[in-house]
């Protein structure tokens, strides 16, 4: 009996549809001939949909999406400064709403310097680390507010909410990952300033560490972590951190590893209560949309994360290997988005 | 009539006293023969003092310090993991207490790649920018708390407080700086997630921009800013940002410019109601303390910022030039802390 996996596709805006098309190509090829069948449903969501209908993400959308086994998202967001989108906040209303509603408490972001990709760092070394970013708490909860808006007496607050429940589950996930890798876990926070949240994170890591005696644990303040990401990135194995610090560190990680164009991510609900969502870290890049200029590699590597999450380890490894081989042979000749996708797909079952 | 400037010296812990000794040497030499006399008072503060007396910063200390014209601080903080310091939080109780009590609402952090200093970046270009970091608000206010501590139901909150009053004054300062430099100002925040604080910052920058029609303004999310600091650092002129983002970005800036060992900073109260405080960005580095291994350059460049703040522009320029000349002639020969200080001092009034 073939196994059917239902996949919600959210191509989104800008270069999103272009890179998702290539990701689909590679996905189809990766499972061709196996006993797994992907059944895809397309959702038109993002700035484009908002401009047409005024909706960002309806309850019906959310309900329909959550009935799938997994989600693949391209990128969402309209042209910066588009006055019609001024009050929309597609990021909060769509991306963050999905992450929060589907309890994506692990935001998984691997960083590697692939052989053949020039890092902007003179001496990056062998970079291969994983950021496990909390996805449902911290300063992202939307518990802000302001009074006297627009007056000289305005006060605007933002509340970072951190719970033992929320921190422990993501910390456990990070330890599991570390245990299966090079057995090193670095907590990044700012315990000397954010003393309450910091203390909760620190105590949680210390407590969970007792269950993983083989994993070496250290701690860095977020400011110092940016220094080490630049000076000694090869030293990191697994970084576990809060939602905002993880956002910042993973863009920096993308930069030092030679480009956000290669950075994949998974928004994961490890319990399996809700579908997990895979997406490139990059945005919708409206300036180059529709021109076949975008590199679909990050979207394709997100497919590898998706396959791995679904337990299809062999297919995941094959996709990663195909991407690596493609990257290693890059010689600067410009290729269209579709050409890159075709060539990576052609390396599968080849 | 000679002008007397009263200076509070806080050498602090670890390498602090060593680098401050060299900074004093250079300061004395820079004003020798001029009509300015520095009258110095030494304050023993930091982990050392806490271990001796149990005090971090008493009301008397604060009162005495605040009667000075300016403050020069080395570095504070004991050995990481020292159990006797476990509950002290010298950073909050001393450094942040000084910044908040003395209304240091501008935290000024220049970044330059000095000719002769190898940047870890392959191609940094001519980097010369200034981060104007807010110093008295944001997530640093200490408005956090937790309930049910130590139980599975713990909730730990941190509140970022932002006021129109606080944001506008630092934004105006940043525009003034930009107007006197390359006339480019970049606001860094995370407006798509921290919507209330972000909106206040954005509206304030837009409003103040009207008074500075010659200054080009742009905006970056903090995550994207880390990418551009790595890929195109030469593009920045003045960055204005909140307390936490400024903390993170300036350590990153130190890293890409070839070392936190050269990064100076000013904690400034532009109104002159309270003394401003100058300090290297680096910490107390207890592991190399007392060995004459520390580079005093960041402390010496902090003296240049101090002189500039006091209106002693000529002396400030001379110190910066002496440092530049010293850096340009570095050839890797190891020098002691005192040797570096002596040699920089010797270049003054040479
Ligand atoms: C678009 C934005 C809300 C999002 C985030 O901050 O999480 C993005 O930067 C990311 O990292 O996926
Ligand atoms: C020591 C710490 C409280 C401080 C800060 O976060 O401001 C330091 O990192 C700095 O940048 O001066």
Automatic annotation (TrEMBL), chains A, B:
Q: What is this protein called?
A: 3-isopropylmalate dehydrogenase
**Catalyzed reactions per annotation:** (2R,3S)-3-isopropylmalate + NAD(+) = 4-methyl-2-oxopentanoate + CO2 + NADH
Q: GO BP, one example?
A: L-leucine biosynthetic process
Please list the residues that bind NAD(+): 283-295
Sorted keywords for this record are: Amino-acid biosynthesis, Branched-chain amino acid biosynthesis, Cytoplasm, Leucine biosynthesis, Magnesium, Manganese, Metal-binding, NAD, Oxidoreductase
Please state the pathway this protein functions in, per its UniProt record.
Answer: Amino-acid biosynthesis; L-leucine biosynthesis; L-leucine from 3-methyl-2-oxobutanoate: step 3/4
Extract the SUPFAM superfamilies matched here: Isocitrate/Isopropylmalate dehydrogenase-like (SSF53659)
- Necessary cofactors: Mn(2+); Mg(2+)
Task: Please name the gene that encodes this protein.
Answer: leuB
Q: Name the protein family.
A: Belongs to the isocitrate and isopropylmalate dehydrogenases family. LeuB type 2 subfamily.
Which cellular component terms (GO) are annotated to the entry? Answer: cytoplasm
Q: Which residues form the Isopropylmalate dehydrogenase-like domain?
A: 6-344
Q: How does it assemble?
A: Homodimer.
Q: Where does substrate bind?
A: 99, 109, 133, 223
Does Oxidoreductase appear among the keywords?
yes
Enzyme Commission number(s) from the entry:
1.1.1.85
Which GO molecular function annotations are given, in alphabetical order? 3-isopropylmalate dehydrogenase activity; magnesium ion binding; NAD binding
Question: For site (Important for catalysis), what residue positions does UniProt give?
Answer: 140, 190
Cofactor binding note from Swiss-Prot or TrEMBL: Binds 1 Mg(2+) or Mn(2+) ion per subunit.
What InterPro entries does its record include?
A: ICDH/IPMDH, IsoCit/isopropylmalate_DH_CS, IsoPropMal-DH-like_dom, LeuB_actb
What subcellular compartments does it reside in? Cytoplasm
Q: Which Pfam families match?
A: Iso_dh (PF00180)
UniProt binding sites for Mg(2+): 223, 247, 251
Q: Quick check: keyword Cell membrane in the entry?
A: no
């Amino acid at each position: 009996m073939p196994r059917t996996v239902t996949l919600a596709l959210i191509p989104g805006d800008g270069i999103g549809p272009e890179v998702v098309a290539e990701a689909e190509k590679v996905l189809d090829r990766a499972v061709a001939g196996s006993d797994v069948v992907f059944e895809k449903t397309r959702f038109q969501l993002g700035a484009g949909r908002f401009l047409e209908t005024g909706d960002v993400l309806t309850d019906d959308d959310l309900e329909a999406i959550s009935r799938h086994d997994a989600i693949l998202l391209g990128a969402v967001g309209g042209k910066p400064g588009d006055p019609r989108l001024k009050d929309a906040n597609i990021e909060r209303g769509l991306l963050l709403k999905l992450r929060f509603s589907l309890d994506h408490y692990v935001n998984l972001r691997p960083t590697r310097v692939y052989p053949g990709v020039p890092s902007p760092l003179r001496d990056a070394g062998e970079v291969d680390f994983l950021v496990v970013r909390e996805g449902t708490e911290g300063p992202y909860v939307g518990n802000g507010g302001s009074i006297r808006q627009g007056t000289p007496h305005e006060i605007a607050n933002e509340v970072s909410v951190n719970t033992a429940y929320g921190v422990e589950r993501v910390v456990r996930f990070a330890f599991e990952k570390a245990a299966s890798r090079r057995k090193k876990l670095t907590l990044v926070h700012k315990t000397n300033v954010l003393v309450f949240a910091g203390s909760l994170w620190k105590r949680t890591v210390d407590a969970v560490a007792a269950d993983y005696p083989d994993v070496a644990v250290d701690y860095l303040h977020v400011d110092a972590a940016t220094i080490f990401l630049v000076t000694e990135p090869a030293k990191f194995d697994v970084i576990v951190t809060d939602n905002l610090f993880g956002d910042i560190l993973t863009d920096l990680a993308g930069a030092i590893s030679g480009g956000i164009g290669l950075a994949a991510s998974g928004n994961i609900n490890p319990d399996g209560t809700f579908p997990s969502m895979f997406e490139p870290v990059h945005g919708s890049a409206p300036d180059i949309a529709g021109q076949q200029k975008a590199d679909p590699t990050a979207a394709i590597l997100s497919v590898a994360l998706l396959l791995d999450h679904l337990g299809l380890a062999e297919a995941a490894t094959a996709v990663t290997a195909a991407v690596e081989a493609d990257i290693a042979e890059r010689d600067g000749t410009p290729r269209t988005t579709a050409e890159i996708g075709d060539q990576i797909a052609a390396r599968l079952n080849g």
